Amino acid sequence: MQYTEIMVRYGELSTKGKNRKIFINQLVMNVKKALHQFPNVRIHGERDRMHLLLNGEDSTKVMECLRPIFGIQNFSPSIKVEKSLDQIEDTALQLMDEIDTAGKSFKVEAKRADHTFELDTNDLNRELGARIVKAFPKIKVQMVRPDIKLRVEVRNEGAFLSCLTIKGAGGLPVGSSGKGMLMLSGGIDSPVAGYMAMKRGVKIEAVHFASPPYTSEQALAKAKDLTVKLAPYVGEIKFLEVPFTEIQEEIKQHVPPSYLMTVTRRMMLRITDAIRLKRKGLAIINGESLGQVASQTLQSMIAINDVTNTPIIRPVVALDKNEIIDLAIKIDTFELAIQPFEDCCTIFAPPQPKTKPKLEKAIEYENRLDVAGLIERALERIEITEIHAGESYLENQEDEFSDFL
């Protein structure tokens, strides 16, 4: 059937009291961004739900774009008909006919905003229920947790019918909790951390450190493609490429091998915090999981975090690797993350990094560097790319390589 509207239910937003309007407006903005390729869709965000008037747009494609948007509990495609009992009954039977009803249970859930309609909600429930049972003798009525719920709403502008309820992404609308800078490597953990932060309403900008020629163009393209995987949850994400070669070479030359990782991470954190301040972010997000590697012990975190008072959000800190991998598979970043292109955290990784580095030692070794100058030069050469869903940077790299051959 040709659906005419999609009804969106908010879920967690209903608990926000006086602030609900702020969250709903943010969700409306995110939905508009996600549906930019459907110019005829009209979006009306009301207090209890959102209505998307399709105006001839393909409902299947629109619903695919709605699935990953945080802040949506579920949604239902519906059909608008005239407020005539015959029209409502005929449409209800057509909707049920498109579903495998054999052995299933159902209930009718009617609402009547237009109180001039000839039947009240109870009479409408009984009338439609009787017609459906007669037309589909293998179906049974069940009031609690039925397999199929036929929703009918009689409003001033018409009657709206639906029998599908599609689960949404849940969470809070991205942007409703402010903005944070995601320290995005090319690995498994940081994209998952970004996904989890967005689910709690944080708008992210991805900060990626590149060290050419030690890191390749493919490694950079891979990081951008990981950002592409996160883009559908919000529409677009800013990707900030930080040139890190000079800093890593200086650290390699002046810092003992056992403290290379500690000082490197301190520099990364300083730069990310400077970017956050400039771009009006509120927090830093990373993919650290407690005890997973040398730089993620509590002692290392103390030595590294000393450079900033900015809140650092670690969404995966208490998850083990298998749990993180499961989430990476769910959001389709795992296969991309395991592609063998090294990032700047691995190219200079020492064979025996300190797992319990001392803060005073890290500061001592860092004093051998021109910290302020190195950071200033890196910040001056940042490149910003706007990443959208559906793009592919690794494929472009392969195409350019083929052309060269």
From TrEMBL:
Nucleus in keyword set: no
InterPro entries: Rossmann-like_a/b/a_fold, ThiI_AANH, ThiI_fer, ThiI_N, THUMP_dom, THUMP_ThiI, tRNA_STrfase, tRNA_sulfurtransferase_ThiI
Pathway connected to this protein: Cofactor biosynthesis; thiamine diphosphate biosynthesis
Recorded family membership: Belongs to the ThiI family.
Name used for this protein in its record: Probable tRNA sulfurtransferase
Compartments reported by the entry: Cytoplasm
SUPFAM superfamilies: Adenine nucleotide alpha hydrolases-like, THUMP domain-like
EC number: 2.8.1.4
PROSITE patterns membership: THUMP
Functional summary from the UniProt entry: Catalyzes the ATP-dependent transfer of a sulfur to tRNA to produce 4-thiouridine in position 8 of tRNAs, which functions as a near-UV photosensor. Also catalyzes the transfer of sulfur to the sulfur carrier protein ThiS, forming ThiS-thiocarboxylate. This is a step in the synthesis of thiazole, in the thiamine biosynthesis pathway. The sulfur is donated as persulfide by IscS.
Residues that bind ATP: 183-184, 208-209, 265, 287, 296
Principal subcellular localization: cytoplasm
Gene Ontology biological process terms in this record: thiamine biosynthetic process; thiamine diphosphate biosynthetic process; thiazole biosynthetic process; tRNA 4-thiouridine biosynthesis
Keywords assigned: ATP-binding, Cytoplasm, Nucleotide-binding, RNA-binding, Thiamine biosynthesis, Transferase, tRNA-binding
A molecular-function term among this protein's GO annotations: ATP binding
Catalysis: reaction(s): [ThiS sulfur-carrier protein]-C-terminal Gly-Gly-AMP + S-sulfanyl-L-cysteinyl-[cysteine desulfurase] + AH2 = [ThiS sulfur-carrier protein]-C-terminal-Gly-aminoethanethioate + L-cysteinyl-[cysteine desulfurase] + A + AMP + 2 H(+); [ThiI sulfur-carrier protein]-S-sulfanyl-L-cysteine + a uridine in tRNA + 2 reduced [2Fe-2S]-[ferredoxin] + ATP + H(+) = [ThiI sulfur-carrier protein]-L-cysteine + a 4-thiouridine in tRNA + 2 oxidized [2Fe-2S]-[ferredoxin] + AMP + diphosphate
THUMP domain ranges (all copies): 60-165
Higher taxonomy: Bacteria, Bacillati, Bacillota, Bacilli, Lactobacillales
One cellular component (GO) term of this entry: cytosol
Membrane spanning residue stretches: none
